[in-house]
Design goal:
This protein is mostly helical and 74 residues long. The chain has two helices and no strands. The chain has helices spanning 22-45, 51-73. Helix 1 (22-45) packs antiparallel against helix 2 (51-73). Keywords: Membrane, Transmembrane, Transmembrane helix.
Length: 74
């Protein structure tokens, strides 16, 4: 039985690298910073007795700010 080969197998593969435009990076960074700032602001409004919840919101807020920095400089 004869086998057929695909002509695409012999062609070199081209890897496409996607890069965001500057306005897209800025929009993403501002959005993540806003979310992080909002979470940290809401954490500061919680009662002092809710220490774990306050710290949790602060950590998540700082995580969003870190994502903003990553998004901007990636």
């Amino acid at each position: 039985m004869a086998t057929m080969t695909d002509s695409k197998d012999n062609q070199p593969q081209v890897k496409v690298v996607y890069e965001d435009c500057l306005p897209c990076k800025l929009t993403g960074a501002v959005a993540f910073t806003g979310i992080g700032g909002y979470l940290m602001y809401e954490a500061s409004k919680l009662d002092v007795s809710l220490v774990r919840r306050r710290n949790g919101l602060r950590v998540i807020g700082l995580g969003f700010v870190a994502l903003a920095a990553y998004r901007l400089y990636r």
